[in-house]
Automatic annotation (TrEMBL):
Protein name in the entry: FecR family protein
Matches recorded under InterPro entries: FecR, FecR_C, Ferrdict_sens_TM
Membrane spanning residue stretches: 92-112
One Pfam family of this chain: FecR_C
Domain FecR protein: 194-294
Keywords: Membrane, Transmembrane, Transmembrane helix
Tree of life domain: Bacteria
Residues in Protein FecR C-terminal domain copies: 352-418
């Protein structure tokens, strides 16, 4: 894992340089870093160029976030810049930090709507590592295998399938050579396995049909060790990204694939899609990247009132679209024609990504990935966030970013307390 702490350290030194707050020791440290490489020198020049800083800050000012600017004016004392205006020294503190995160790749521009001068708000005595490849495999006989402790290679056999764990964190099902070479068609039996990721865990599985599934934290997938010729059905709780193999049976007919989650069924042939079905989220989201899927409500309102009260009973999704199913008795299935694909699958690509995301939503993701409990004390801040950060950073470095919003975080053991 890359050491991100250095990025935060240098960003802080550059901000102090621009505001004239560098100590002699810190100046020596910054000079040494700049001299290390041409890349560092070029980065330093960009981050200290007043024209670039003014342009970036003006872009922020023009985005209509008046409440955020009122907070900045109150806490820093500088005024909202007009287009092409010169940035006062007291404002460069913020702009340098924002630009540094942008160039270093830790944050997208305007990660935070509300901002305060760079300072340490989180005072914590412990830290938590990010999630990793962790899961438990439950076999048909209810025996369990802890996959993060299991050695690489063959770990079990189920019917005619050999189950192996690979060095790069995958669970793979392959037909045994004896079954492949046999001229007798094996009798189908319903033998199911379940892979479950804990909070702070993730895992990948290659299903018996060759389909690939990425499981996010606090999720589970139930599937047969051998699929029927007529259908392929699995059950999902939590979140997963699917790449479904396009298969045909002996009659040259495409074998459909179904993913069942609470309140819906997703029907596919061969395609790439993401399903977020966490019970603590406001809706079940099915996002399509490639191919075509059909999302069907399994609990529809009876009689002719179905469309009027419960929304559509089924939707056909095309690439770039998302279905959102609201839970409860009055389920509503809605189509989002232009979904944010990058945000929907950011977790699978090792990122947290936020676009106008509120703090409770962010903290639910943090809670699952870092395996922590979150407690809000007082009014929940209405701060919203933009940007991305690697899921590989320890929790303290995540807070070093969120702290700029002015929200107070306190970590004790595996409990985060947020005070307004």
């Amino acid at each position: 894992m890359e050491n991100y702490s250095g990025y935060f350290r240098q960003g802080n030194l550059i901000a102090k340089y621009l505001t004239g707050e560098l100590s002699s020791h810190e100046k020596e440290e910054l000079d040494a870093w700049v001299a290390q490489s041409d890349h560092n020198k070029e980065l330093f020049e960009k981050l200290t160029d007043e024209g670039i800083l003014n342009n970036e800050l003006s872009r922020f000012a023009s985005s209509g976030k008046d409440d955020a600017w009122e907070t900045i004016v109150t806490k820093t004392g500088f005024n909202k810049p007009q287009r092409h205006s010169y940035i006062g020294r007291r404002s460069i503190n913020y702009a340098a930090a924002a630009l540094f995160f942008l160039v270093s790749g830790l944050l997208a521009y305007q990660f935070i709507y509300k901002n305060t001068p760079v300072k340490q708000i989180v005072q914590q005595q412990n830290d938590l590592a990010p999630g990793s490849n962790k899961a438990v495999l439950t076999l048909a006989d209810a025996s369990q295998i802890n996959l993060d402790d299991a050695t690489n290679g063959e770990i079990a056999k189920q019917a005619d399938m050999i189950i192996s764990k690979t060095a790069d964190g995958q669970l793979v099902y392959e037909m045994a050579k004896s079954a492949v070479s046999s001229s007798v068609e094996p009798t189908y039996t319903s033998v199911y396995n379940t892979i479950t990721t804990p909070r702070g865990g993730k895992f990948r599985v290659v299903l018996p049909d060759g389909s690939k599934v990425w499981l996010n934290a606090a999720s589970s997938l139930k599937y047969p060790t051998k699929f029927r010729e007529s259908e392929r059905n699995v059950e999902l709780n939590g979140e997963a990204y699917f790449e479904i193999a396009h298969l045909k049976n002996s009659r040259k007919e495409a074998i459909p694939f179904q993913v069942r989650s609470v309140g819906q069924i997703v029907e596919v042939l061969g395609t790439h899609f993401n399903i977020n079905s966490y019970s603590d989220e406001s809706s079940i989201k099915t996002t399509l990247l490639e191919g075509k899927v059909k999302v069907v409500k399994t609990q529809t309102i009876s009689s002719s009132k179905s469309t009027k009260v419960g929304g559509a009973s089924a939707l056909i999704l095309r690439p770039g679209e998302q279905a959102q199913l609201a839970p409860g008795i009055r389920q509503k299935l809605n189509l989002i024609a232009q979904a944010d694909i990058e945000e929907a699958v950011a977790w699978k690509n090792g990122q947290f990504q936020f676009k106008d995301t509120d703090l409770p939503t962010i903290m639910r993701q943090i809670s699952r990935w870092y395996d922590v409990k979150v407690d809000f004390q007082g009014k929940v801040p209405d701060t919203k966030f933009r940007g991305k950060i690697s899921r590989d950073v320890p929790l303290s470095q995540f807070f070093q970013i969120l702290q700029l919003s002015g929200v107070n975080f306190k970590l004790q053991g595996r409990k985060i307390t947020i005070k307004s």
